[in-house]
Design goal:
The chain contains five helices and six strands; from the N terminus they run αβαβαβαβββα. It has about 160 residues and is of the alpha+beta class.
Length: about 160
């Protein structure tokens, strides 16, 4: 029991919407508007952001006020594993077209932040105060150590 809540009903899947989302994501990728894509299934938004930062060797700056969720709680916004959600990156020039593509299909989309050359993982609360501010190098080190421990059977 976390936060005095025993909620845990499996969400109902809207298969027609899931198909539409996947088709639109694939169309956006094929059009060249998307520079990177990650699903939000295992670990939610924070894990996807972190994995993308590690892979690209770039940082990010995200404000949680811009992250759509059924709850205003930061933990839910960061770790919800709701089906059918994706994290997409694109150039600033492609942003309006990408938003229009999804809006045209009736699929919610929002710009939650930006990829940065600064190798920093920065997540801000709605009022702009940092909730997470970590150097990418530190995250890469911890990620590698964890993988080494897993492979050695220590975790």
């Amino acid at each position: 029991v976390v936060h005095q809540s025993e909620e845990g009903a499996v969400p109902k899947v809207d298969f027609s919407m899931a198909k539409k989302i996947l088709e639109t994501v694939v169309a956006a990728i094929r059009s060249g508007q998307v520079t990177a894509c990650h699903d939000l299934s295992r670990g939610g938004l924070f894990v996807a952001l972190t994995e993308m930062a590690i892979t690209s060797d770039l940082g990010f700056k995200v404000n949680l006020a811009r992250v759509s969720a059924d709850s205003p709680r930061a933990d839910i916004k960061l770790f919800s594993e709701t089906y059918g959600r994706f994290l997409l990156t694109c150039s600033k020039a492609a942003l309006e077209n990408l938003i229009a593509l999804f809006a045209q299909e009736g699929i919610p989309i929002s710009s939650i932040g930006e990829v940065t050359e600064a190798k920093q993982l920065l997540l801000e609360l709605p009022e702009g105060n940092p909730i997470i501010n970590l150097p990418l190098l530190e995250i890469k080190y911890l990620w590698a150590m964890r993988m080494d421990e897993e492979m050695a059977g220590r975790k």
